[in-house]
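notes to self, project folder thing:

trying the whole complex as one job this time. last attempt i did each chain seperately and stitching them together was a nightmare. two parts in total, labels are on each line so i dont mix them up again. if this works i'll redo the older ones the same way
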Amino acid sequence: MEKLKTTSDLEKLRKNLLNKKNSKNTCVSICSGTGCRAYTSENVVNAFIEEIKKQKLENKVEVKRTGCHGFCEKGPVVVIHPMDICYLQVKPEDASEIVTQTLLKGKTVDRLLYTDQKTGKKIAIESEIPFYKNQTRLIFGNNRKIDPKSIEDYLTLGGYKALTKALFEMKPAQVLDEVKNANLRGRGGGGFPAGRKWETTRNAPETPKYVIVNCDEGDPGAYMDRSLMEGNPHSVLEGLIIGAYAIGSNQGYIYIRQEYPLAVENTEQAIKQAQEYGLLGKNILGSGFDFDIKIHRGAGAFVSGESSALMSAVEGHVGEPRPKYIHTAISGVWDKPTCLNNVETWANVPFIINNGSKWFEDIGTKTSKGTKIFSLVGNVNNTGLVEVPMGVTLREIIYNIGGGIPNGKKFKAVQTGGPSGGCIPENLLDLHVDFDELAKVGSMMGSGGMIVMDEDTCMVDVARYFVNFLADESCGKCIPCREGLRHMIQLLDKITSGNATEKDIQLLEELSEVVQMASLCALGQTAPNPILSTLKYFRNEYEAHIRGECPARVCKPLITYYIEPEKCKACGLCLKNCPTNAITGSKKQVHVIDIEKCTKCGTCFDVCKFDAVTKKTAEKNKKEKITVTG
Amino acid sequence: MTKEKNKTNFVGVRLTKEQTKNLSKLQKSSELSKTDILLRGLEILSEYYALGLDRPPLNIELKKLEEQAIHHLNELKKIKQKEESIKQLIQELKDVDQIIDEYNGEKSALIQILLKIQAKNNWLPKPALLWVSERLDIPMSQILNIATFYKAFSLEPRGKHLVRVCLGTACHVRGGPKILQAAEQFLGIKSGETSPDMKFTLESVNCLGCCALGPVMMVDEEYHGKLSPSKVGDILSNYKNKDTKNIEEKIIAR
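result (full assembly):
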């Protein structure tokens, strides 16, 4: 690998690479994101390599491990280019059939194609599958075309063009203006305008200045940053270098969560490659601009994703937030001006520089520009990563792309914005998703997690889950967050066990207000959001719990398991599986659950093939009534 | 009384004059200390036992001597063990040194250094932390502050396999808690504990970042997605079986 000294060196290299690529025009690209790897996609890759060798196609066909395609529900995903035929849930033993049928004869293997749920039709072309068709893939689009471990792949797709444009055709101030005009807002949660943040750091008097990529994606239910960092690390690097040029920084950090080993591996490799080509280091492409990047691995703490806490962690201290009377953009790492942005925000930068702010402004809504990647998960048919322009409705995302709720269940709520976000009910499904609209209904964009919940989800339990999560992750530095959350859990425990009164709900509301107003950092300030939003839209469920009833039949103290005698076929399956031997019965004799022994683990409910086991609620209430009347 | 005067006291055992004489003779010719000679003799004796041979007839004096020497032998073994553990410790600290040098001894790399030590040992042993404190000139209190704040660190030895059950939101709504319950039942330990045979450590985590596959469990570096409680036992027993298989293979190879 020779160091590139000028832009013409880079263009020459790009030309050579394109020529080389054209000689092999068929490509089998196999998703090797973390999701598909869990489905053993590596075995699929090996099966293809072997089969292609066997059929002597090595010189014509290329096998490629790509980043996450986003359609994680149906992994491992295999796409044959240039025909763009998409095979889903491919197993290693399917490789030979695909090679002989599709690569040699040009036919499709129908059983591996996507089946439309409504019409039952098979769809072969990737871009015609509704999941992909209804998306606008800008940032995430290249993920499925490139091998994240190869800088050459990124270069053939026009990679680092934006960098040369910024370095040689624009002054730092012009780059800054472009990003400011594009009105790019931070994708990490708050939605603060990135351009303004850059400007503050640029104008801060102290030197040196630092730039940081925040890949501490702690929000449960969100994994788009991971997929970008793993699948297309160079796009983030390019954005970061451009940002550093605009801000006047020579040192960058990438903070990656400890739980993402593949992201660390791919980013390390990407940095090494960029350094070898001279796209990082001293005098980049002969422009006189120096810049280098270090990776900092997190060690497992949710609160470390907060900007000041993350910077403290980069310094080698405990990742606790500090009061931000002076913004981190002015006084961050080692008290020097530091500009921190989320992975997706940085990945947007090359697009804005390449296409101009005007182009970017045309996508999205009035206040929120561009696209956003959401991780659509939970009780939805097509789980995966979804990139749509800002302003698309929730209904479009959940039903048109996500394919609705599985098993014929009813939609109940969608939770956005991670633990600090809120739950949005069915009547607001036509909401146009952007930063401000979500805030208006008491939720937030957050990093883009979108967790769909069906009718079997108890909203009080969900609120309790989030508060529990946040109490666990609270660093304990400030009292309102540390103590407030603990008391909120106690109250929620009281409610979910059916021992609460109307007064407890009031107390919960009051407490939420105090925690919101008095906490030091965003973790505490937004912690009551799950409670407040569920109280706002699902107050009836809270009230039901006070009456001793859990409408979704989730909260253990309020439900009992019961075997319906008419449906029980006396098969003995539940009896065999019960961990506490609470079920009695024998052949041809209806089984009965002993409520005294039952721990309500739900095993019998899961194993019963005849739906004979049911959950009952409001038992408690009835008992009380009996004692009163009796 | 006179008889007793004739005897010399040696490592707590009284020897007759003749024995003392023989001993000093031996000592002169072999240039070994008295203790060494005795121990040597007893090693030979213990080999006798190990081979299952009848022990040579001993008089009472010799028996006493033998007891005494066994005691010394045990002491020696203990010292040797200590020596071994010190050697191991030195090796461990050398490894730590290497890790610290990778980061040029920078104070700001403390978390990265601890992560590497954790990855190497599966936990953070105290001597390693003391050495990090010494080398980086960071007080132990600060190191423990970090080691207890972050979830990746453990101050206790962990099992061979780390089982992490995801309880993130997406997994939660798809039945993550039931997976944890099943894992607890199978392993017979609670979340956060290590099995007595040091094979498994069970943990619950807040998000593994592959939410589309929920509910998810991660064993070491492998992800297992779309789980149901009944699958958990199969997966975990696979790891158990793999281990015994490996051991068997090793034995066969020997």
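what i see at first glance: Confidence is low (pLDDT under 50) at residues 620-630 of chain A.
need to look closer tmrw
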